[in-house]
């Protein structure tokens, strides 16, 4: 594929990874891209690189525009290997290029690569003149690593935020309007839920810090470049960063002999009778990263497991570990499950909900052996009460959300 000119003299020179299906625990059925951008100014500047196996793609695309030897600066917005893996080979080819990185980026790169590259450290708010352009650098620590940085080119009205606003999707198309909002919203949500969510407070701070900047294009390091749906993706990030949810439910469960599955079905029926949309994730067939995407937008999270070996089923154990690390706040929780004699699955699930400070207005539901008609009626009635409890809540805000919304990009 040819390089793509996304703005006059600014080119996408990244790589498309059609085969990626897993990204540190996150299922990526659509693959991904590693976006790198070449700015053709007096001092030719490459912003970010690609994963190591895609070094030939990067150099090939750059070479269609200029001799790589002409590159003066390589901006490294983020140390993670999907954006830096190709740097050792690239800097062997062009050893006189200077790597521009954040305060935390420099030690990160040095520790990763044990290399003695020319480096220029930029603090937040610093600028670099590369000709008719002056690049601005804004640190966005913990979105999602300590070193994370945004590069901004006022000349191009272009924001280069690396992972922020990314989506894992491989495509022949580079721009959001060529792919469509529905697919990109789904992939951006999955990306946020599985990578960015634990750092939502830092995302909210970053959105506020970036809100004075004027731009008409956001070119992240994964997936489509935003030019048409910028207000939509900014609004979504504002909502996710402030833990806003909508009155819908996620039921995440696994079952041993079908009893917990029957309880999940009664929960779904009761919630739907109360007018609450429900998404079911039986972890025998759903992946935990898909379940997390549903959790991102859902106000009510029901988690069910039978008791096995004095605890939860392994699939639910994995989900609870993942959930606890991703730290969604401001949720209503319900634990449920069947048991034979111990019933320890319920307190194990409740412990994670308590650790996340979720509200649990109803008692957990557990049934011994097979749920009978009365048990299922109890589950159904509990679900109806929970449904009625949340259905009039349009959106639930974390403290201070309204203030941060006012600072949103306009
Ligand atoms: Fe796309 Fe944090 O790397």
Can you tell me about this structure?
The chain is an alpha/beta fold. It has two domains: 4-241, Ribonuclease Z/Hydroxyacylglutathione hydrolase-like (Metallo-beta-lactamase, Chain A, 4-Layer Sandwich), CATH 3.60.15; 246-394, Flavodoxin domain (Rossmann fold, 3-Layer(aba) Sandwich), CATH 3.40.50. Helices cover 36% and strands 23% of the residues. The protein has a seven-stranded mixed sheet with strand order 1-2-7-8-9-10-11, with no helix packed on it. It has a five-stranded mixed sheet with strand order 12-13-14-15-16, with helices on one face. Strand 10, helix 4 and strand 11 form a beta-alpha-beta unit. Helix 11 (314-326) packs parallel to helix 12 (345-355). It is elongated, with a radius of gyration of 24 Å. MU-OXO-diiron (FEO) is lined by residues 78, 80, 82-83, 144-145, 163, 221-222.
Q: Topology, please?
A:
Elements lengths: L3 E4 L2 E3 L2 E3 L4 E2 L2 E2 L4 E3 L2 E3 L4 E4 L7 H9 L7 E6 L4 H4 L2 H7 L4 E4 L3 H9 L4 E4 L5 E3 L4 E6 L9 E5 L4 E5 L13 H4 L1 H16 L3 H11 L6 E4 L9 H12 L4 E8 L5 H15 L4 E5 L5 H10 E7 L9 H13 L5 E8 L5 H11 L9 E4 L4 H19 L9 H6 L4
Parallel strand pairs: 8-9, 9-10, 10-11, 15-16, 17-18, 17-19, 19-20, 20-21
Antiparallel strand pairs: 1-2, 2-7, 3-6, 4-5, 7-8, 12-13, 13-14, 14-15
Helix pairs in contact: 6-8, 6-10, 7-8, 9-13, 11-12
The structure holds MU-OXO-diiron.
MU-OXO-diiron binds next to helix 2.
